[in-house]
Design brief:
about 120 residues, alpha/beta, about 20% strand, 3'-tRNA processing endoribonuclease activity, Ribosomal_Su5_D2-typ_SF, tRNA binding, endonuclease, nuclease
Length: about 120
């Protein structure tokens, strides 16, 4: 697990100037939902090409009540935020929106290194 995190952290240094921001508006989430969906064992990834001049990578996170109670949902979202922080600056495409959706009982329990690999493969 450690070497996967180190590999992701090392790879993010050259592209650290590439901005990554968080989606907050419902309309952005709805537009991303109309984009491509990539299911993986630990989460679902929605990808949308904004087709604008803004090179920023934008990312959003969501977990429904199916994931569990508030504690389980928050844990799942923390894990999704961390894999996005490690992987998107390196493997994400500029001008794209990404939404990571937590899965019931999978997002909180799947091994972290496997979730990193899942996100890299989904991109």
């Amino acid at each position: 697990m450690h070497d996967v995190q180190a590999e992701a952290a090392e790879g993010s240094a050259p592209l650290a100037a590439l901005p990554v921001s968080v989606l907050r508006n419902r309309s952005d989430f709805l537009r991303a939902a109309r984009g491509r969906k990539v299911p993986s064992p630990g989460f679902i990834l929605q990808i949308r090409n904004r087709r604008d001049d803004d090179p920023a990578i934008r990312v959003g996170f969501t977990c429904s009540k199916k994931v569990g109670n508030a504690v389980a949902r928050n844990r799942a979202k923390r894990r999704l935020r961390e894999i996005a922080r490690l992987v998107l600056p390196v493997h994400g495409k500029p001008g794209h929106d990404y939404v990571l959706i937590g899965r019931a009982e999978k997002t909180a329990t799947r091994p972290f290194d496997q979730m990193l690999r899942d996100l890299k493969a989904a991109l």
